Amino acid sequence: MARFETRAWPADPTAMGGKAERRSFRYRAFVPDPVANLHLSLPSAVAAAVSSAERAVDALNREPPRVASLEVLARRLLRAESVASSRIEGLVVSQRRLARAETEEDSSRDETARSVLGNVAAMQEAVVLGAGAKPLRVREVLALHRLLMLSTTTPQIAGELRTRQNWIGGNAYNPGRAAFVPPPPEHVPGLMDDLCAFMNRSDLPPAVQAAVAHAQFETIHPFADGNGRVGRALIHVVLRRRGLAPRYVPPVSLVLAADPDAYIAGLTAFREGDAAGWCRLFAEATGRAAREARELAERIARLQETWRKRTGRPRSHSSAEALIVELPAHPIVTVATAQKLLGRSKQAVNEAVALLAEKGVLHPITLAKRNRAWEARELFALIDEVERRLATFRWLEG
């Protein structure tokens, strides 16, 4: 049974924050029920929400939106997911800033951008992991965490389960004022083995399985840092492993980030025994994310068509057309990165960039070390508009 365990926090005369923070005290850590053999009976309204969400994800994958390259859309959605997932953790990076960081030298990237790029790497690994057929093990989850944290200021914790008590909320000194205290560290390995066993099941609706897996992971909070981002990457793992999202996993974090209070309330409800309520909230978010992904893809396709008209409809095998196809996934390019991306000669790329710049598709910018680059400003404006619209979304109301 789920339970609280009372633990003692030792006195620390060197702790910051005044006398109250230096004294010893007792706190309660939550140890959740195992989920490997969990059986859920969902109310009809929740089952309907889950079914609707899965239909939306299935439609996104079975009836791909009108885009010139499925890989380009997958990359764009993955970056939308990574930026939004990082934003929930307070790492705020615009799509433009992320694209600049991807194009710049490692030494030129700012710390926040490096952290978000680590999240991109973890999400990419989640997609690969989800496509595999082997049973999921804890070591694969550790690999996701390693990719996430290696580019941060705390690489020493990358890929390692925590060995100390952590907590959510309150202050950084002790768990006395925490909003939630996860299980003590000795429970973490067993709970993670149990969670992986749950994710290897195939008898639950995929959206329910993803919802429970994410909430249970956040409850365990198995790492010293990076739990939220790894937990949201596991959503991708589950939906892809179950075959619901073989091409595109919708950017669920884009919706979660729009209403963080509801997100936290849903996770809290799960811990308090309302798994059905959390599943409904998660299903609402997933369905909305799938619909937003389709709308974004259609708008990108229309923008690309505008670019083609503006540039005189380049030939289908021309470098200009190839660059138009790839720009939504790589909206900032240099001649060198475009050469690598397109597999074309420097002269052909220069001519393509010149044409797109002349017609206002690309605009010149300067990266670090005076590196000349070009950006697709209209694409960034489109993405910014989608994010602003989503910012007004509230679950169960939209």
Task: Describe the structure concisely.
With 398 residues, the chain is mostly helical. The chain has helices at residues 19-22, 44-62, 70-88, 95-103, 111-131, 138-149, 188-199, 206-220, 227-241, 252-256, 260-271, 275-310, 319-326, 335-342, 346-358, 377-390; strands spanning 3-9, 25-31, 332-333, 363-367, 371-375. It has 16 helices and 5 strands.
Main sheet record? 3 strands, antiparallel
Shape: globular
Highest CATH level, the class of the largest domain: Mainly Alpha
Q: Strand portion, in percent?
A: 5-15%
The value of Rg in angstroms is 23 Å
Number of helices, where a helix is a run of at least 4 consecutive DSSP H or I residues: 16
Say what the CATH topology of the largest domain is.
Answer: Fic-like fold
Which structural class is indicated by helix and strand composition? mainly alpha
Which runs of at least 5 residues are low in confidence (pLDDT < 50)? none
Q: Give the full name of the CATH homologous superfamily of the largest domain.
A: Fido-like domain
Strand order of the largest sheet: 3-5-4
Average residue-wise pLDDT = 90
Q: H/E element string?
A: EHEHHHHHHHHHHHHEHHEEH
β-strand number: 5
**Distance separating the two termini:** 36 Å
Question: What's the architecture of the largest domain, going by CATH?
Answer: Orthogonal Bundle
Number of domains: 2
How much helix is in the residues?
Answer: 55-70%
What does this structure look like?
- The protein is built from 16 helices and 5 strands.
- With 398 residues, the protein is mainly alpha-helical.
- It has 2 domains: 260 residues, Orthogonal Bundle (Fic-like fold); 76 residues, Arc Repressor Mutant, subunit A.
- It has a 3-stranded antiparallel sheet with strand order 3-5-4. Strands 1-2 form a two-stranded antiparallel ribbon.
- A hairpin with a 3-residue loop joins strand 4 and strand 5.
- Helix 5 runs parallel beside helix 9.
- The longest helix has 36 residues.
- The mean pLDDT is 90.
